[in-house]
UniProtKB/TrEMBL annotation:
InterPro entries: Bact_Lucif_Oxidored, Luciferase-like_dom, Luciferase-like_sf. It holds the Pfam family Bac_luciferase. Residues 12-256 form the Luciferase-like domain. Transmembrane segments: none annotated. It comes from the Bacteria. This is LLM class flavin-dependent oxidoreductase. It comes from Streptomyces yanii. SUPFAM superfamilies: Bacterial luciferase-like (SSF51679).
Length: 342
């Protein structure tokens, strides 16, 4: 498949989840995914922040996690998709981001968004009804802090001083207006693996958002569109379903309780609602070649969530993505790390 960009970056996203009550093992396994992805040539590894496990993940402190990942990897970029910005002090967050960026040699990608859990907002004493407003306010301060401007009070700048973050701040959006707003602010675009609240296929819903983003872009540097997709290659469809089918179905039923999906979905419809690509690598390649947003994406971000496959199966899936799926779509592994701010 040819894309409208010379080369897309390949990433993977983990929500840092496990099946047992051993968080140390879950975190260790997630770090092993980063190491494996680094060795396989993935361009970026992403984590999602969740303060409550019911929200779909087990990582509340992404920058602590990424600092450890920085020490275990050599070239892969390290990002959040997303950090829940309204629940953060933006100056304090900028300090963490700058520190991890310095430790990693300039490999940080910062994705932010407003999140969706009312419980998380209540726990942090924030008004969920103001989440978009809080997100915009905090993003303005965060940008200034990472530009090494005075923030908080006259004479204060963060330390360590931040490197150039032009082109490294991303926003997760769920509408065409949100995409245009992200472009107006100079943020890169993050599109979720599923479009909640819509009956149409996710890529049909999201392609106009991507087009609105491109149309609104006016910055001198190249815009980036990160496309998150559920991709789980295996020996065949049956083997893949053994690893992911029940988890995806259960997640869809939970999602239906909030009204984002219809109630009573069967497994096949649950997989469709999560816009899932699974089975033999050849079948996944053929399906991704029909994906409507991928031709304008600069970053393909693969993930297994909401499934929690066995660790060995997850490692094998990463191998198949890097050696069979992505190359068939035109991706080539980078031969050296990208420079900071690339």
């Amino acid at each position: 498949m040819t894309t409208e960009t010379p080369r897309f970056r390949l990433g993977f996203l983990t929500h840092v989840q496990g099946r047992d009550d051993d968080p140390a093992r879950t975190y260790r396994n997630a770090h092993e995914l980063f190491v494996a992805a680094d060795e396989l040539g993935f361009d970026a590894g992403w984590v999602a922040q969740h303060h409550v496990s019911a929200g779909g993940g087990g990582l509340s402190s992404p920058w602590t996690f990424l600092a450890h990942a920085a020490a275990k990897t050599t070239r892969i970029r390290l990002g959040t998709a997303i950090t829940i910005l309204p629940l953060e002090d933006p100056i304090r967050l900028a300090e963490d981001v700058a520190a991890v960026d310095s430790l990693s040699g300039g490999r940080v990608e910062l994705g932010v968004g407003s999140g969706s859990s009312a419980l998380e907002y209540a726990a942090f004493g924030k008004d969920a009804a103001r989440k978009r407003e809080l997100n915009s306010e905090n993003l303005e301060v965060l940008r200034r802090a990472l530009a090494n401007e005075e923030v908080g009070t006259p004479g204060f700048r963060i330390q360590p001083p931040a490197a150039d973050f032009t082109g490294r701040i991303w926003q997760g959006v769920f509408s065409g207006d949100g995409a245009a707003y992200a472009a107006a602010g100079g943020s890169n675009l993050l599109l979720n693996r599923a479009a909640y609240g819509f009956d149409a296929p996710t890529d049909e819903v999201q392609r106009p958002w991507a087009d609105a983003y491109i149309a609104a872009w006016s910055q001198p540097h190249r815009p980036r569109i990160g496309l998150s997709r559920f991709v789980f290659p295996a020996k065949d469809r049956r083997t893949a379903l053994q690893q992911i089918g029940n988890d995806v179905h259960a997640a869809a039923l939970r999602t239906a309780e909030s009204g984002a999906f219809p109630k009573g979905l069967d497994r096949d419809e649950a997989l469709r609602r999560f816009h899932s690509f699974y089975g033999h690598p050849d079948d996944i390649v053929a399906a991704l070649q029909r994906e409507r947003v991928l031709p304008v994406a600069t970053d393909l971000i693969t993930q297994f969530n909401p499934a929690i496959p066995d660790h060995d199966a997850a490692i094998r899936a990463l191998e198949l993505i890097a050696t069979e799926v992505a190359p068939a779509l035109g991706w080539e592994p980078a031969t050296k790390p990208e420079p900071a701010g690339a």
